[in-house]
């Protein structure tokens, strides 16, 4: 069958790479894709929010399954549209994707169905929000309600910092419509982990554990980004924590969404804060994490296509996923200045050499073609991802790959995976 993947980042490159290995697949398209994806699939010049264009393409090319990477088309209702025309598609419907598209909705669902999370309040006016901050003190967390590409969360260490964040979002338009409401919530201590599961709205298949690194600098310093690297498995997710995540977070949420008349199908991502044996939910995403997707798919032994198709058909009962025992580590190489303003068009060197290194994949995230070479074209440019027998082996291989790749002002964290070594 032919498969269409929607998106243009490192997550989509990893999905295309994994999907193209399936014996069920004759051709993979990616819209809009990127130059790295273009080496293994056919890129289609359609934007992720061009729903009529994507529908028309899928009909014309008789696409057997569409796989949605980013949150924007999900929140716009691409799954509903494709299903209306009888096309098979993997992803959450619009009314279920709200679990990511609105932080306030997500928190209300958690509260109603007793999913453990931080205490919170939702505000659309500056003064009541400031009064709440004054009452509760800092550290405290301020979140833009809507989609802000992973950057709409401010972990404020002081009350002044929190008040500035509130003013920026509610009256300063820092995140546009996404910040017209804010969620202010308790600061949780502990270690973060990413817990993903594939679901048909009833049955749940957990993916392997993973951990993302959101802050831009080493030791979790600096502003939050879309993610500077990830590894899998995450030792902080012990068997006991895994059981709690499945019963108290995934099961309650998926049953709750069904009870709300918003059955959740696709992949559900829970950002967890783990402190000893306590598990609390930071947020939900309605899609594969980026960069968690890269190490997870490197470790996935099973063919991914049958389970994606089973979700689109509405029943994954009887399915399981097998995983390689090896660990995988992804180091994101970013442009100078990211997550703020950054230059584009810097020539990238060393990709040919990295391609010869064993157990290593370089997933393109923000690149453009420059003749026979590649140039930077985004904040997160590459995800250098390696397999190893241990986390340390995988870290060493990933950074060996990073060491041969370069461009002017390249930036990356040097401590990806160090928390796993600490355990």
From TrEMBL:
Biological processes per GO annotation: 'de novo' IMP biosynthetic process; purine nucleobase biosynthetic process
Listed Pfam families: GARS_A (PF01071), GARS_C (PF02843), GARS_N (PF02844)
Domain annotation ATP-grasp: ranges: 107-313
Keywords: ATP-binding, Ligase, Manganese, Metal-binding, Nucleotide-binding, Purine biosynthesis
Alphabetized PROSITE patterns for the sequence: ATP_GRASP, GARS
Entry's family note: Belongs to the GARS family.
Protein name, per record: Phosphoribosylamine--glycine ligase
Native source species: Geoanaerobacter pelophilus
């Amino acid at each position: 069958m032919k498969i269409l993947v929607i998106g243009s980042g490192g997550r989509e490159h990893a999905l295309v790479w994994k999907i193209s290995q399936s014996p069920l697949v004759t051709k993979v398209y990616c819209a809009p894709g990127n130059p790295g994806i273009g080496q293994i699939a056919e890129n289609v010049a359609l934007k992720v929010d061009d729903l009529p264009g994507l529908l028309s393409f899928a009909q014309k090319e008789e696409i057997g399954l569409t796989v949605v990477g980013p949150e924007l088309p999900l929140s716009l209702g691409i799954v509903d549209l494709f299903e209306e025309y009888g096309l098979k598609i993997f992803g959450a419907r619009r009314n279920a994707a709200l679990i990511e598209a609105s932080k306030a909705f997500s928190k209300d669902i958690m509260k109603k169905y007793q999913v453990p999370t931080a205490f919170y309040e939702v505000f659309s006016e500056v003064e009541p929000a400031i009064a709440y901050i004054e009452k509760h003190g800092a550290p405290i967390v301020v979140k833009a309600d809507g989609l802000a590409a992973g950057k709409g969360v401010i972990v404020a260490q002081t009350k002044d910092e929190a008040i500035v964040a509130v003013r920026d979002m509610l009256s300063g338009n820092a995140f546009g419509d996404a910040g017209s409401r804010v969620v202010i919530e308790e600061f949780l201590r502990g270690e973060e982990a990413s817990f993903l599961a594939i679901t048909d709205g009833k049955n749940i298949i957990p993916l392997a554990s993973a951990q993302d690194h959101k802050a831009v600098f080493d030791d979790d310093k600096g502003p939050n980004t879309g993610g500077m690297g990830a590894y899998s498995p995450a030792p902080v997710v012990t068997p006991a924590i895994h059981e709690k995540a499945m019963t108290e977070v995934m099961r309650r949420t998926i049953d709750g969404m069904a009870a709300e008349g918003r059955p959740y199908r696709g992949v559900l991502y829970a950002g967890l804060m783990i402190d000893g044996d306590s598990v609390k939910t930071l947020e939900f995403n309605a899609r594969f994490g980026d960069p968690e997707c890269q190490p997870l798919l490197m470790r996935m032994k099973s063919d991914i296509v049958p389970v994606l198709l089973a979700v689109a058909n509405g029943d994954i009962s009887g399915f399981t996923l097998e995983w390689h025992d090896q660990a995988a580590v992804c180091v994101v190489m970013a442009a100078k200045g990211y997550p703020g303003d950054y230059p584009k068009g810097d020539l990238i060197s060393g990709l040919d050499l990295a391609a010869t290194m064993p157990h290593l994949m370089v997933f393109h995230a923000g690149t453009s073609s420059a003749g026979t070479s590649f140039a930077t074209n985004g904040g997160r440019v590459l995800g250098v991802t390696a397999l190893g027998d241990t986390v340390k082996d995988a870290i060493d291989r990933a950074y060996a790959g990073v060491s041969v790749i370069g461009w002017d002002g390249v930036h990356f964290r040097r401590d990806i995976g160090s928390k796993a070594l600490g355990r």
